[in-house]
Design a protein that fits this description.
single chain; 958 residues; alpha/beta; Rossmann fold; 6-stranded mixed sheet; 5-stranded antiparallel sheet; 9% strand; flat
Length: 958
């Protein structure tokens, strides 16, 4: 990966567009981003990270505030980065979410985040505009996530020392993100899941075996037991019980068979006696019955069958006759109500029809007359409504000119307020900012006074320390003397009387500490001076914007103008609406006047027609209300005459049919052998009664024949003989019960033996199949414990921790090579895979081996400069291992942010030589620092300096 060009606008402390050409910066392979503290050097690296991943490293990424506070509100925040990855050159343009002024009205609206990727060289695909798609494309090409990028390419300010001082848990989280060991976590989970599943299966099989044991005990009526030989003993006892039951069953079965034979003979005798006695009783009852009357009643009922339905038909015909009489009476009453008093019904009806036909032509004119009368009423009502609408339109048109003039004046005022809004807004902003700027000035002045006091005290302390050190310089030189080596002052190899250390003396370390404290106090003083100056400038700018106007008046004037400007759109819409309404009402008034004239003309014409037609119709209607009423009356009168004539004819026909049916019924009764119709009706019986008589006669005949046949069959049986059937039955029942009980006992014993034998076979098979499962589960359980850092795992390391420990060991080897060189052979990293205290997980311990003492010690005990060397070495080693692990992108660019101020000159030379070696193969290394000595060692390609409203960039190629 190689960066080419970075452009940013309204980002961080940069309010205006800035550009960084990395091709020029990295021409020598090593460049420096130099500037004062807080000038915005790290912001450039944040811009690179934001362009690639939409995030910035460290605590700055948690704040999520990337927009420049000094930028013009109309200028959008945007970062553009052009780079090459895997021979593909592309440009990423990204904007964060920020608030911008609304285009209409006051206030702000949120501008959503957006991103785009455009291919420049090496790829012909289409550009990408979705944020998620851009993120996936960048990670695919780089071969690493943003966490890995911040550890491999961009070593952020204060971040790469966290890994050195972190504990095992924190270090494990970071290594997991860098090396992507989630698959080993999946392996651990896979083994745990397999063990859980195998345990469930084994437990289910064990429970199945236990259930079989209980079923065996239940089938054998014994208590369950896990003792060896219990199953075989149960089977032996059941076999013995079957043999005993078989012997008892054979004995009782013989006795029961003999008793059954005796019982069968006794039952035959008892049945014959019963049949003879019942036959004699049945024959006596049959001979005593009155069977002759049954035969006579049945025959008479059969002869009366044809007479009954014919007689019933007479009633139906009589009912039809009565209906015809009632219909004739109703028709006569209806005709009388119409006022008819004649007798020639057919002739009078025809005459009335002819007269009604003559009135047919006038009926159409009568209908038109009614319609025209209704139309006159409608025209009168419509004319009234149109006149009212015309009055309302005149009233509205009178007031509209005044409303138009008033609305026009309000619109002009709103337009004028909109034009003045920008100038008034500037003064209002200045008025609102003035109190805060005044308070800020007072606060910064107080802070400046305090910073001056602190700096003066630190300066006094430094001078005092230097004075004491000069006074005790002999002691310091004497401490460096060694036996047989020449003195650095006089050159003598002998040292007869070296100066002795004094209690409370100071050395070079004390002077360095005092110098750093004095320098820090000086920087705080300068920062306070700049803050106070900036506060004075802000107050001056506020008063310049206000001019001679008071802040309260400026705020009130701005609020009034803003409120009036907001009504501009509403007033414009209202004015246009009033103009359109005026035009519409005028057009509607003209149309309404035309409609009124038409309605009045039509009404006058229709009145003349109605009066002329009404005279003709009055003459033709006679005594009736109108012609239609008279015509309807004539037609109804003719219809009633025809209907009365038809009803009279129907009544005469119904009477003739009744008399004809009565004669036919009398003839049928005579033919059936009855004296008259009443005798035939008396002999009639319902079909169910006739069927009952047939069944009674048939039953009588069957009973007599059956009794005679039984007495003839059992003629030799004496009905007075007795048989003791109850005693014989009791003896047979007792014998059969004993045999049945013995057979039941045998069946139960055999069933129990068969059931237990089957269950025993299943139990033996189940126990045999459990043996490999038990062994397999024991092996899986032990292996799962080892993989998850328990059981026989003496190091208490999970598989994932073991892999991370191996990666950490590679990092320690790679980092030790650089640390050993930069520390002049004193320090190297030591990796330990032993378990932690109290059996906690281990494998990720990382200490520092001090060759001066020959012992390892925690990294937290290193000094500031030593911590920087260790952190930088560890970060570079980690970068090498992660780059090899990702296996993908060639990393041509590396950034290191801050930390150089803790190094002395000699150590800085070693560190610079190490970083200079990273340029091999065309690699570009960028350093970010405010240390002045680095400016002398590296040509300053890019300098960042503060301006009054933010930070600016200066390109320098010298």
């Amino acid at each position: 990966m190689r960066l080419h060009r970075l452009e940013l606008t309204a980002f961080g402390p940069y309010p205006k567009p800035e550009a960084v050409d990395f091709d020029e910066l990295g021409a020598d392979g090593l460049f420096l981003l130099h500037g004062d503290t807080g000038a915005g050097k790290t912001t450039l690296l944040d811009a690179v990270a934001f362009a690639l991943f939409g995030k910035v490293p460290g605590a700055r990424g948690d704040v999520k505030k990337l927009r420049c506070e000094y930028a013009d509100p109309e200028v959008p925040t945007e970062v553009s980065l052009e780079l090459t990855v895997q021979s593909r050159r592309f440009r990423i343009v990204r904007s964060p979410e920020f608030d911008r002024p609304k285009k209409r009205g006051g206030g702000f609206t949120t501008q959503p985040a957006k991103c785009s990727l455009t291919w420049l060289e090496g790829w012909d695909g289409e550009g990408i505009t979705r944020i998620d798609d851009v993120a996936r494309a960048v990670e695919d090409m780089l071969g690493m996530s943003y966490e890995q990028f911040f550890q491999v390419v961009l070593l952020p300010q204060g971040e790469f020392a966290k890994f050195l001082r972190s504990d095992t848990a924190e270090r494990e989280v970071l290594l997991e993100k860098l090396f992507g060991t989630e698959r080993f976590l999946d392996v651990e989970k896979w083994f745990r899941d397999r063990r859980l599943a195998a345990g469930r299966v084994l437990e289910e099989r064990r429970q199945g075996a236990a259930k079989l044991v209980h079923r065996v005990a239940e089938a054998s009526s014994e208590e369950p037991s896990d003792e060896p030989g219990w199953l075989e003993a149960v089977l032996d006892r059941l076999s013995l019980a079957v043999e005993r039951a078989e012997a008892l069953s054979e004995d009782t079965a013989g006795v029961a068979d003999g008793a059954d034979a005796v019982l069968a003979h006794a039952r035959v005798q008892a049945d014959q006696l019963r049949r003879v006695r019942e036959a004699r009783e049945l024959l006596a009852r049959v001979e005593a019955a009155d069977s002759a009357s049954w035969f006579a009643e049945r025959d008479a009922a059969r002869r009366a069958i044809p007479v009954v339905p014919a007689h019933a038909e007479i009633a139906k015909l009589q009912q039809s006759y009565e209906f015809a009489v009632r219909d004739e009476s109703r028709a006569a009453e209806a005709l009388a109500r119409l006022g008819y008093e004649g007798s020639a019904l057919r002739e009078d009806a025809e005459r009335h029809r002819e007269e009604a036909g003559g009135l047919g032509e006038l009926a159409a004119e009568a209908e038109r007359q009614q319609a025209d009368v209704r139309r006159l009423s409608v025209l009168k009502n419509s004319s009234y409504q149109v006149e009212r609408r015309l009055l309302a339109l005149n009233a509205e048109l009178e007031v509209l000119p005044e409303r138009l003039a008033r609305c026009r004046a309000q619109l002009d005022a709103a337009v004028e307020a909109s034009g003045r809004l920008d100038s008034l807004r500037a003064r209002a902003d200045a008025a609102e900012a003035l109190p805060g700027a005044t308070r800020a000035l007072e606060r910064t002045k107080n802070e400046l006074h305090q910073a001056i006091d602190v700096h003066q005290k630190a300066k006094d302390v430094l001078q005092q320390v230097r004075h004491q050190r000069l006074e005790n310089m002999a002691i310091e030189l004497a401490a460096a003397l060694k036996r047989g080596k020449p003195c650095a002052v006089c050159g003598s190899p002998s040292h007869p009387a070296p100066a002795q250390p004094m209690l409370g003396g100071v050395g070079a370390t004390d002077e360095e500490v005092a110098a750093r404290e004095e320098q820090a106090a000086l920087e705080r003083r300068h920062e306070a001076e700049r803050a106070a100056h900036a506060a004075e400038l802000r107050i001056q700018a506020c008063w310049e914007a206000l001019g001679s106007e008071e802040p309260a008046a400026a705020l009130a004037e701005h609020r009034a103008a803003l409120e009036l400007a907001r009504t501009r759109s509403q007033r414009q819409t209202e004015f246009v609406g009033l103009e359109a309404k005026t035009r519409d009402l005028a057009a509607e008034k003209g149309q309404v006047e035309q409609d009124l004239v038409g309605l009045r003309t039509e009404h006058a014409s229709l009145v003349a027609v109605v009066e002329e037609r009404g005279a003709r119709l009055d003459k033709a209607r006679g005594e009736h209300e109108d012609v239609l009423t008279r015509r309807d009356h004539l037609l109804r009168l003719a219809k009633a005459m025809v209907e009365l004539d038809e009803r009279r004819n129907a009544r005469a026909a119904a009477l003739a049919r009744v008399r004809e049916q009565q004669a036919s019924v009398a003839a049928l009764a005579t033919e059936a052998g009855f004296a008259d119709v009443d005798a035939a009706l008396a002999a009639h019986r319902p079909a169910a009664d006739v069927q009952a008589l047939d069944e009674r006669i048939a039953a009588w005949e069957r009973a007599r024949a059956s009794a005679l046949a039984t007495l003839e069959e059992l003629a030799e049986v004496d009905p007075d003989e007795e048989v003791d059937l109850a005693g014989v039955t009791a003896q047979a029942s007792s014998a059969r019960a004993a045999a049945s009980s013995a057979a039941t006992g045998l069946a139960r014993a055999q069933a129990a033996l068969e059931r237990v034998s089957e269950l025993a076979a299943r139990l033996r098979a189940e126990r045999k199949s459990l043996e490999p499962l038990e062994a397999s589960y024991a092996e899986l359980d032990a292996l799962t414990d080892v993989i998850n850092g328990r059981g026989q795992n003496s190091k208490k390391m999970t598989l994932r921790s073991y892999v991370l420990a191996a990666r950490l060991e590679e990092v320690a080897v790679a980092a030790s090579a650089r640390l050993h060189r930069m520390s002049q052979g004193r320090y190297s990293f030591v990796h330990s895979d032993s378990a932690g205290a109290r059996g906690t997980r281990g494998g990720l311990s990382l200490d520092v081996l001090d060759d001066y003492s020959g012992r390892s010690r925690p990294a937290k005990t290193l000094s500031g400069g030593e911590s920087f060397l260790a952190s930088l070495s560890l970060a570079l080693g980690l970068a090498d291992v992660v780059a090899n692990e990702t296996g993908g992108a060639l990393l041509d660019t590396l950034f290191v942010d801050e930390g150089f101020g803790t190094l002395d000159s000699d150590t800085l030379d070693i560190v610079m030589n190490t970083l200079d070696e990273l340029r091999a193969g065309g690699r570009v290394v960028g350093l970010v620092s405010h240390v002045e000595e680095l400016r002398q060692r590296i040509p300053t390609r890019l300098r960042v300096r503060k301006a009054r409203t933010g930070s600016t960039l200066e390109m320098s190629l010298g």
